[in-house]
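Review form for a predicted model. The reviewer records the input and the model, then writes brief findings.
Reviewer: anonymous (R2)
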Amino acid sequence: MPYYRPPGPPPDPALVKSLTQQQQEMRLRVRAEPLAREPRLIAGCDSSFPTPDTILSVFVVLKFPSLELVEKVYNYGIVDMPYVPGFLSFREAPNVIHAFAKLENKPDVIMVDGHGIAHPRRMGIAAHLGVLLDVPTFGVAKQKLTGIFQEPGLERGNITPLTDAKTGELIGEVVRSKDKVLPLFVSPGHRCDQATATRLTLACLRGYKLPEPTRLADYWAEQFKKEVR
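Model under review:
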């Protein structure tokens, strides 16, 4: 997800402490597990900030495995939380939940443009949303947030582990989604495991760098921005 990073004074220490505690409590609720059954509907989720004070969150729902578009919705709202590095999920989540509530076709799993547990406190936006919605989620991000990895082979389908630099814990996988393009960072969110997250990411590739759920969410975000300008 594209983040707005405004300049300004350092965040309030009391706020940082509160948000850290909330993330630690939410982390205890995260479950890594395979899906109960193969999904019939998969959603893509993306958020962007048209202005420093507003957020646009988009969901697209696709049939799986055909990836036929079933539904697309968005919610546009005011951002009421300041920018705090490492806690961007708190800026996005309320508006994303409003967008999710508009869906008539609830997905079996959500692919989020962002990180799952591949986060310093294991609570990226995909994990955050999964816990709040109690829906299976995983993250597909374009940039690394934390961890170490070896570059995967240049051909599509090559994968290497993303691990915690201190503990060696597996926190994601680095996936080459298209020949000779920069890889993606795939990590489980909630009620999803790494194998499922990577498998679904690969199954949703259609010749682009981004898998179809997040690619189409990003595409429709640009279209919906025209409605709110």
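Findings: The domain at 40-228 is CATH 3.30.2170.10 (archaeoglobus fulgidus dsm 4304 fold).
Further findings: The helical segments are 13-27, 88-101, 125-133, 194-203, 212-228.
Recommendation: see findings above.
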